[in-house]
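HUMAN: I'm a chemist; might I ask for a sequence paired with its structure tokens?

ASSISTANT:
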Amino acid sequence: MPPRVSPLKDAQKTIQSRTDNTNKLDVKYINAVKGRGIIALGQFSKGDFVLEYRGDLITDYHPTCAGFLFSFKWRGKTW
């Protein structure tokens, strides 16, 4: 088994090549409230680089950004 690439080096390589490693990810439309979501098609290990977030980073609360909703599904159970 080849040695594991560090998450930092994996992230740098992915960002510099302007690609995402999407073989373990799929984008699905959830519903009108949630919109689209990223679904894992395989397992990830702790510390793995998954993808680069290309959206706006919101650091301060603003009424137009009233909240965030994250749901997770694992073994048939949703949180």
